[in-house]
Amino acid sequence: MSVAQAVSVESVKDQVSAAEWQTRVDLAACYRLIALYGWDDLIFTHISAKVPGTEDFLINPYGLMFHEITASSLVKVDLTGQKLMPSPYDINPAGYTIHSAVHEVRHDVGCVLHIHTPAGIAVSAQKQGLLPLSQQSLFVLSSLAYHGYEGVALHHEEKARLQADLGDKNFMILPNHGLLTAFGTIADAFLGMFTLQRACEIQIMAQSGGGELIHIPQQILSGASAMLAGVLKSSQGLGGALPWPALLRKLDQQMPGYDA
Prior knowledge:
There is one protein chain. This protein is α+β, with helices and mostly antiparallel strands. The longest helix is centred in the C-terminal third of the chain and has 23 residues, at 186-208. The protein contains 9 helices and 7 strands; from the N terminus they run H-E-E-E-H-E-H-H-E-H-E-E-H-H-H-H. The protein has helices at residues 18-36, 93-105, 118-124, 135-141, 158-166, 186-208, 218-222, 224-232, 244-254; strands at residues 46-50, 57-59, 75-77, 111-115, 144-146, 171-174, 178-183. A 7-stranded mixed β-sheet has the order 3-2-1-4-7-6-5, sandwiched between helices.
């Protein structure tokens, strides 16, 4: 029986700008963190990050598992899906449809993160969607959109409907499908997904108890945006900038090599 060879990709650090390289390192780290937290789905689902100063974006090489992805193995494409640097890998066609749709119209978004977790899909399959049951859901509900299921996202005409449904929101639940976050930075997109995923896990656990559920009152939901800003504001910046360095330290200990 043959043993699969370890994936080896030549470094592209000297072929790209310093800003692109940093984005590659952070995006590869994000892929590894998704694997570390158990939110991956074999080689499926995808995270993209815009190349600074351009309309191009980076996305995963279709065929690698998330724990294998490195800064150099990420594939750079333009908004038409054409590869801009040589790569032995193609990209996931459904991933291209979803991510290009967002990047085309949301110029404030630097990273789009999409996953298929059991808890996320379970909540997406519920008619009422995400319920106001937890503090985590409070933050998500302040900027949440839905996009109805149209099958595997292979048809480009779906892009306009996805764009319209997302609007200016940062979180999206795709019924019967999964979860999506769209934020200015990779760190923010990861923190947003951590919060959304945790809210879904809590909802499924609360419902499994069979008792009557307590919903967060509407007056508290209405003030969620202000509360979120108060919790996350610090001298280090907003949102994901707070836990990101610690997450990278955790990754360096448990799943190093993403920055190659």
